[in-house]
Structures are given as structure tokens and as C-alpha cells.
Specification:
Length: 107
């Protein structure tokens, strides 16, 4: 699978993914809590400014906490937060983290 979808109306192709940029940023930070936002942005494929806005959203939502360590930031992800969409609101973000950050997922 290539990640490309063809629309029925005109046969054009668009890129799309199952996970949002917010999910990708959260997963990136969960994998590397001391990563610079520039590196997170590069990994996710967004601008550094977009990564900053997403981190601010995630902080405001209680999904992660930022701690200043010297000149760098260190992030702590709260896996007990629930998904925001009503269809998944009974599930915790930790389920997503476990799926994509576990050692067995890499195999």
C-alpha cells in the first residue's frame, strides 16, 4: 500500500494517513522525550512552527507536560488521557502509544 487514495469523483490521487499530525507528534515525543521540536517537526513532516502549535495543543489538553532542563525541554506524555473524538473517547491515548512505541511493533 502506498498511502495514496483515489477519489471516486474525478480519479485524482491525494496523500492521506490514518493518524493526524497531533498523533504523530505525540508518538515522536513518546519515543524521544528529549527531542528538539525541530527534529520532531522533521520526523513528522511539518514545520517547526506547526510542531510548536501542536505541542501547545497537546499540553493544553493534558496529553503531555514540558519540563525545562537546562537549555532544553523534556516532555512527559500522560498515557491516561482519552481520545477526543466521541467514537473513541472511551479509549486512552496509552493504547495508541503501546501500539506504536512497543518493542514488538518494530519487529
Amino acid at each position: 500500500m502506498t498511502g495514496m487514495a483515489t477519489t471516486a469523483e474525478n480519479g485524482s490521487t491525494r496523500n492521506w494517513t490514518f493518524l493526524t499530525n497531533h498523533a504523530h507528534v505525540l508518538l515522536s515525543i513518546a519515543r524521544n522525550p528529549t527531542a528538539r521540536l525541530r527534529d520532531v517537526a522533521d520526523e513528522v513532516g511539518v514545520t517547526e512552527r506547526a510542531a510548536q502549535a501542536i505541542v501547545a495543543d497537546l499540553e493544553a489538553g493534558g496529553y503531555l507536560r514540558r519540563t525545562r532542563v537546562g537549555r532544553r525541554n523534556e516532555y512527559t506524555v500522560d498515557p491516561s488521557g482519552h481520545f477526543r473524538h466521541p467514537a473513541e473517547s472511551d479509549r486512552q491515548v496509552g493504547d495508541l502509544l503501546a501500539l506504536f512505541t512497543s518493542e514488538s511493533a518494530d519487529a
